[in-house]
Design a protein that fits this description.
With 260 residues, this protein is of the alpha/beta class. The protein folds into 2 domains: 174 residues, Vaccinia Virus protein VP39 (Rossmann fold), CATH 3.40.50; 56 residues, Orthogonal Bundle (Helicase, Ruva Protein, domain 3). α3 runs parallel beside α5 and α6 packs across α8. 28% of the residues lie in helices and 20% in strands. It starts with 12 loop residues before the first strand and ends in a 9-residue tail after the last helix.
Length: 260
């Protein structure tokens, strides 16, 4: 059976086998997982480098019916779920730690990362192809113009590692942008030393007005009565993950409205 090489759901299919192999080999088994979930396998370019590996149990999730039919025919024994990863219950995939891998559809790649963050207690490693701009943002550090909400939240719980860049000609159809493969590995932080929900809200609020100093960007942010020095005169992009944790701690420090 032949599946048309088409763009669907923001996805572009890899045509260079060597790149698919490099992505598959980027899985380090960090955290001792056995279960691996491939998102959006499409024509199976990456799948074929994973399906026969004896050290992992592969599950694929594919939303496109034509691609799913092709995969069923090509790999009859493959554990394939037809559906949307963003709505998927990860409890359907074994128990214990797991890895996520894929040539991620560009239009949902950031949402994929946020879902991984929601399941950080299970997902010990991610190897993914992203639009390069998104990959750069996820890996960016303080002071970079690309540093933002996804940078801080991802790096709070994962170590980010850019691996390699992929040119548009490696895909069918060729995208109008460059792509990049990155690896995320769970860091040693089980829980942040602050209210984690408040931390997330604080990061999002601060970056939503990133051109303003935090004194102005966080006006009205409850339960922070005032932005403590030395943060008040700085902008969100100048703060590290550790700085945002300190700010979140300030929200619930004795004397703050949250502690009263």
């Amino acid at each position: 059976m032949h599946v048309r090489a088409k763009k669907h759901l923001g996805q572009h299919f890899l045509k260079e086998d060597g790149i698919a192999q490099r992505i598959a080999e980027a899985l380090t088994r960090f955290g001792g997982y056995r279960d691996v979930l491939e998102i959006g396998p499409g024509t199976g370019a990456l799948t074929k480098h994973l399906v026969d590996r004896p050290d992992i149990r592969l599950t694929c999730i594919e939303l496109d019916r034509e691609a799913a039919a092709h995969l069923h025919a090509a790999y009859p024994a493959l554990h394939l779920i037809e559906g949307d990863f963003l709505r998927m219950d990860l409890a359907r995939i074994g128990e214990g730690p797991l890895a996520v891998i894929g040539n991620f559809p560009y239009n949902i790649s950031t949402q994929i990362v946020f879902k991984v963050l929601d399941h950080r207690d299970r997902v010990s490693e991610v190897v993914g192809m992203f639009q390069k701009e998104v990959a750069d943002r996820l890996c960016a550090g303080p002071g970079s113009r690309t540093y933002g909400i996804s940078s801080v939240l991802a790096q709070a719980w994962y170590t980010m590692e850019p691996l390699f860049t992929v040119e548009p000609g490696s895909f069918i159809p060729p995208p109008q942008v460059r792509s990049a493969v990155i690896r995320m590995q769970r860091n040693g932080v089980e829980r942040l030393p602050c209210d984690e929900r408040l931390f997330v809200q604080l990061v999002k609020t601060a970056f939503n007005q990133r051109r303003k100093t935090l004194h102005n960007a966080l006006k009205g942010f409850a339960p922070l009565d005032r932005v403590p020095e030395p943060f008040a005169g700085r902008r969100a992009e100048q703060l590290s993950v550790a700085d945002f944790i300190l700010l979140a701690q300030a929200c619930t420090a004795p004397g703050s409205s949250a502690a009263s």
